[in-house]
Amino acid sequence: MITPAFEITQDPVFLTIIIKVPYARVSEVDVYIEGDDFKFYAKPYFLRLSLPGRIVEDGRQKATYDVDKGVFTICVPKETPEQHFEGLDLLTALLAPRGTRSCKPLVEEIGSQSELPEEEEEEEFDWQIEQTPYEEPSADVLHCSYGFGNSRSGVFRRLQDELNDIIDLRDPDVTSVLERTQKRLAAENSKFDPDHYLADLFEDDAIRHLLKYQPWWVVALKEASSASEDSENKKVTFSEKEKDQLRQFSNKSYLLDKKTERMVFLGLIDLLLAYCYEIRVTEGEKNVESAWNIRKLSGTLSWFENYNSIKDVLVSFGRRILCYPLYRHFSLVTKAMKDTCSLLKLGKAAVLKCLLDIHAIFQENDPVYILNDLYITDYCIWIQKVK
Question: May I have one GO cellular component term (predicted)?
């Protein structure tokens, strides 16, 4: 669990606790208020405070969440109005635990009658888990950035438990761009399985079946080609679910220099290639492995790769297709490239529709949803404004 950055202010009647949780699942939040105990849980964040005075939960408490900043602001009434709480700036002292979780003796005698229960009780969350104060990332850590436009850093320094389930890169906060590429290539070389490749090459009945599949954008492009130029944009429509996704995004602008903008465009191609492969091999029927496929085939998502040319993107994608997924055939590589070209020809609306689908897939997979915060959400907003 991660101890979030927080601060506390007070007035004569209320304590105001400001908690920064930029990568939390805000749909699953628990707040506990009793006496001088305050506990907050929003996976993967946990905060337990031992306050210098008593607070109450009497209906006057309130909480707000700033989506853009990822900040909870919780106002809690003091049990005794006008009481001044001392030491609210002593963060380490506030994090000190009140005591142990149980009063069991340090040594217990286990006799012959001690047996495990037939049914284990459901595991409860440990509200007394050890905490350490939040520290801002150091300058050398900030040098190794990632995310959309390389705008993030220090995220995984405190997300080590989730790291293995999200990306292939170990220690991303201290790994330079050049080292990421070198480690990615080494991992791909070690993962390539000649037997698997040859089996898919010669026993290709399933592959040939998948190559015949026509995703929605192929059909839409054919219709657009036969229609007038004015009606092309109407070939891509958004469902009510997709419209709801769009309404939830914040309206912000991105100031990218030419080098960063080029990198963002190349990252977009990388994402679309991985998505097109996934849609083809599942014939549009996404499954529990869809999130794994997309992030694994994208060097951007799995290694925080910064590509320098379209050639680098295509070579990386081809290598990863031949190393990781169930179907490893070069025909699927070239087909995904053609699919991506079709999407780009349809325009921004088609690209946005695919990004929204990736966003929905990741949002349903814990802890992969963190990749939405790092990349996909920003791509969904940026693609609508890019010229």
Answer: nucleoplasm
Q: What is the pLDDT of residues 100-122, one digit of tens each?
A: 333 344 344 444 444 444 444 44
The answer to whether residue 266 sits within a structural domain is yes
CA distance 4 to 6: 6
Q: For 203-226, what is each residue's pLDDT tens digit?
A: 989 999 999 999 999 989 888 877
100 φ/ψ angles, rounded to the nearest 5 degrees:
-80, 165
14-20 and 62-66: which strand pairing? Answer: unpaired
Which whole number is the average pLDDT over 91-107?
52
Last residue of a domain, one of 64, 94, 124: 94
Select from 320, 287, 298 the least CA-distant residue to 379.
Answer: 298
Task: Based on the fold, state whether residues 177 and 251 are members of the same structural domain.
Answer: yes
Kindly state the DSSP code that residue 113 receives in the 8-state scheme. T
Q: Name 166's Cβ contacts closer than 8 Å, sequence gap at least 6.
A: 159, 295, 367, 368, 370, 371
Which residues, 6 or more positions from 272, have their beta carbon under 8 angstroms from its beta carbon? 340, 343, 344, 351, 354
Which helix H or strand E contains 132, and what residues bound it?
none
Of the candidates 133, 48, 130, the one whose C-alpha atom is nearest the C-alpha of residue 90 is 133
Residues in the chain: 387
Domain that residue 38 falls in: 5-94
Strand order in the sheet with 71-77: 5-10, 14-20, 71-77, 62-66
pTM for the model stands at 0.72
Question: Is the peptide bond between 367 and the residue preceding it cis, with omega within 30 degrees of 0?
Answer: yes
Q: Which amino acid is located at 319 in the chain?
A: R
